[in-house]
Amino acid sequence: MITLRALTKQYGEKTVVDGLSTEIAPGAVTGFLGPNGAGKSTTMRMVLGLDHPTSGAALVRGKPYSELRHPLREVGALLEAKALHPGRSAGKHLLAMARSNGIAERRVEDVLAAVGLTDVAGKRAGSFSLGMGQRLGIAGALLGDPAVLMFDEPVNGLDPDGVRWVRELMRSLAAEGRTVFVSSHLMSEMQLTADRLVVIGKGRLLADASIDEFIARNSTQSVRVRLPDDGDRRALADRLRANEVTMEQVSGNELHVRGVDVDYVGDLAHQLGVRLHGLTTHTASLEQAYVELTAGSVEYGAPSGQKVGV
Ligand SMILES: Nc1ncnc2c1ncn2[C@@H]1O[C@H](COP(=O)(O)OP(=O)(O)OP(=O)(O)O)[C@@H](O)[C@H]1O
């Protein structure tokens, strides 16, 4: 369990983490999402005692990091891949970590096997590819067999096999009853990996919900209608507008209609005698729900694209 209590961090005038309160529960993967600069890394650093809160608290199993007796045995983290001695072999790096943290040396073999690095344990960590570096970082996080794990962007730069491997690892760690807190920019990935989501923007909590709740609360369903004839499309759009129904033309002859269901649009098309080639309900993906939620708190975003007029 990780507990954030009104966690706040200011750098000079700027509040980068702003009164965050939530609990990251064991037995689940919790995705930590937010646009660039939202404060995700700063939050994780405070959980690990690498940054100090201006006010509030970040607790691991009820205690601040500084009060944990055997920190690496209680919380493991991958913050920045390759934050290690480049001349040391992977095995020696882990051995040094084990020795300085009172962790049994046999754990080194276990975690090397768990991340698939047994065969390259004797190679210099500095010669590792990005993917191997990530695996070594994850091995370090697992070394103390901790109940709480935090991963900051663990799939950054990984190939599809590596991404799938990280996903399965996160899921299996959660299935063992551990707390798994993972930040990512890849919404589609979080949709496959996470049970719950904590979303922040400009340091503030925007959402704290299960994936399904998050999509249901933050996105509206739309009806997608395809009409092969321009005149038919205009007739339907005019009638929807007259009925004060919101819609947009996305491409060619496709309309996205909001706030009504397929029955409504189908009946209207029938009344008008227009021909349809498609009529479907579309539920927003996590990506769309996330973009809608964070639209107001993107610090460095590009302006959104122009809509095609109907
Ligand atoms: N040591 C520091 N001094 C001043 N400002 C800082 C410091 N560390 C972080 N910041 C600022 O705090 C804000 C939050 O940064 P943070 O790295 O926590 O965001 P993030 O959500 O992890 O972003 P990203 O997704 O881009 O990694 C940013 O505006 C950043 O410039």
Please give a structural write-up.
The protein has 310 residues and is an alpha/beta fold. The chain has 2 domains: 2-217, Rossmann fold, CATH 3.40.50; 220-282, 2-Layer Sandwich (Alpha-Beta Plaits), CATH 3.30.70. It has helices at 40-47, 71-74, 90-100, 106-114, 130-142, 160-175, 187-193, 211-218, 230-242, 262-272, 286-294; strands at residues 2-11, 14-24, 28-33, 55-60, 75-78, 148-152, 179-183, 196-201, 204-210, 222-226, 246-251, 254-258, 278-282. The protein has a 6-stranded mixed beta sheet, with helices on both faces. Strand 11 (246-251) and strand 12 form a beta hairpin. Helix 3 (90-100) packs across helix 4 (106-114), helix 4 crosses helix 5 and helix 8 (211-218) packs across helix 11 (286-294). The longest helix is centred in the middle third of the chain and has 16 residues, at 160-175. Mean pLDDT is 90; it is low at 302-310. Bound molecules: adenosine-5'-triphosphate. This is ABC-2 type transport system ATP-binding protein. Pfam families: ABC_tran.
Explain the layout of strands and helices.
Blueprint: E1 2-11, E2 14-24, E3 28-33, H1 40-47, E4 55-60, H2 71-74, E5 75-78, H3 90-100, H4 106-114, H5 130-142, E6 148-152, H6 160-175, E7 179-183, H7 187-193, E8 196-201, E9 204-210, H8 211-218, E10 222-226, H9 230-242, E11 246-251, E12 254-258, H10 262-272, E13 278-282, H11 286-294
Parallel strand pairs: 3-7, 3-8, 5-6, 6-7
Antiparallel strand pairs: 1-2, 1-4, 8-9, 10-12, 10-13, 11-12
Helix pairs in contact: 3-4, 4-5, 8-11
